[in-house]
Amino acid sequence: MRDIKRRIRAIGNIRQTTKAMELVASTKMRKARVLLGKTRPYSHTIEDVINDIITHVREDRYRRAEEEFKHDLMDIREVKKTCYIIISADRGLAGSYNVNVTRKVQSHMNKNKRDEISIIAVGQKTKDYFGRRNYDIKGEFTQISESPTYTDAKNIGKLCMELYSQGLVDEVYLIYTEFLTTISYIPVATRLLPLEPKKIEERKKSMEGKDKPEVTKFILYEPSAEEILNYLIPKYIESMIFGALAEAAACEQSSRRVAMKNATDNAGELIDDLQLEYHRARQASITQEIAEIVSGTDALS
Fold first, then answer.
1. Considering only the top CATH level, what class is 19-196+215-257?
2. DSSP code, position 111
3. pTM of the model
4. Can you give the residue ranges of every domain in the chain?
5. For the chain, what percentages of helix, strand and coil (3-state, to nearest 5) are there?
6. Rounded to whole angstroms, how far apart are CA atoms 171 and 169?
């Protein structure tokens, strides 16, 4: 009975801790969702702007039979080395959040050999996992997963753009967790570099099997489309990374809140089971004492 009471007290202390962690994670999740709500529209808008400009510049150059516009970050090369920007958490106790990110990366890396892969680790868990396995880690960004800033995204973007411009890597993938609902989030992989407009292929597919010519928009860019792209492309890379950081922060806190809630509920169920076991042991002890008293009385009489 003393052992059972000791276990009940210990589990009660753990339940108090997990409950407190659940409340903290809930508060942080609300803040992360506010940041995500502000970041998503900007990321989507700048992506559409970049696609529109590149698409129309290429089509305009094609109509005028001029040389196609080129940019260092749009240079498509033979892929010999791939860089992965992997966003995970700095701490554990977040359910399967970090494991799912690692599985996504490993499944995407299956086509590449170890010496063909470089890593930019965002989060202590990514750094520890791939560092122990002797991957080529080009950069480490830790203690930013719970409250990312645009400065963090600029530093990560600057590193990946330098690696690509210098020819040290031939493509860059961004691996992060996309927030769907408070209990639903999926790891995704998106190619960040080389930069290719998505709307060209979408437009070609939409026009397949149609006899009518497509109506093309004519847009005037000042001072020029090239100068606008030279300014916007780095901003686009930074905004994509910052958007991924905001998505990952919301997913991490949501996953931690769910994990701590499950731990609290499990601790409560375990305490209930131990309480039942304690009452049974106590009843058995009382019954035994009564039986001993009755037996003693019968012996005396």
1. alpha beta
2. T
3. 0.82
4. 19-196+215-257
5. 65, 15, 25
6. 6
